[in-house]
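Posting for a labmate who doesn't have an account.
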Amino acid sequence: MPISEGHQGTILVADDNGANRELLSAMLSAEGYQVVCAEDGQQALAHFNSDSIDLALLDVVMPRPTGFEVCQAIKSKPETRLIPVILLTGLNSDADRLHGILCEADDFLNKPVNKQELLARVHSLLRLKHFTDELDNAEMVLFSLALTIEAKDPYTEGHCDRLSKYSVALGEKLGLSEELRVALRRGGLIHDIGKLAVPEHILLKPGPLTPEERKIMEQHTIIGERICAPLRSFRHVLPIIRHHHEKQDGSGYPDGLKSAEVPLTARILQITDIYDALTTDRPYRKALPVEKALAIMREEVKRGWWDGAVLDEFESLVRGNQSLQPTESGH
């Protein structure tokens, strides 16, 4: 079975039976894969910690711990949860298969293993892993670009990280799904990525912008959405990028949305963005105390700018969580 270039990878074979390890290793090595072996669950986990594993073949009944337990362990860690796992076993009951599914195994093959079926499954899962790795790389490029924008202004150091932290905490308090909390974390980091297209003399201008300059600046939300649109994993991030400058009374940009038309995730980021801007040092003033910042935000709610209910929840969160309050330096 030919394996196209770029789909080879490092495969972990974990089985307490030496003959099985040798057989699987020979099958996979003949196809161009690099193979590392483990005699039990403990050795398998050690390989995940020390090696770059692309796929794992785990014997279910191996000792210390079982294949089920190893699978569950690696799927529970963010850094290894996307590694495909195929469970191999002589067991064939529905209960065992259900156990494998609950451990988040990607596939389940019975022993004795059919060579062609095994290689087909391995090929398919590694191809999917390859695409996932490329997606992760694309996301990292976006995050790096976002940080270059932040780095241009010494007064915004750490701003994106704080927004991610504040927004995710508020999303949790509001009961948002994990998917939307992930979007908030990403949105906090890259909401202003469209500013890459804004000339520096406008981006870093110390005084008020002219109407023409403001029009250019306001395009950054649309440009940011366009930059991130090709990534399907960012579908819940796009509304945050495009709408984090909308206002409840419809006076914001780019679409003049009102009230509930503004996505909740964008309203969350707005609140945390304003709070961070007020409680950190700026060229024209020192960081404001938390009480003063919240009072200003209350006045802006009365003007029809922000969602008062979201601010209520954020204020409760800030007062109950010391880590969400700025340090004396304003950072």
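Reply:
Got it, the structure tokens are right above this. The two ends are 57 Å apart (CA to CA).
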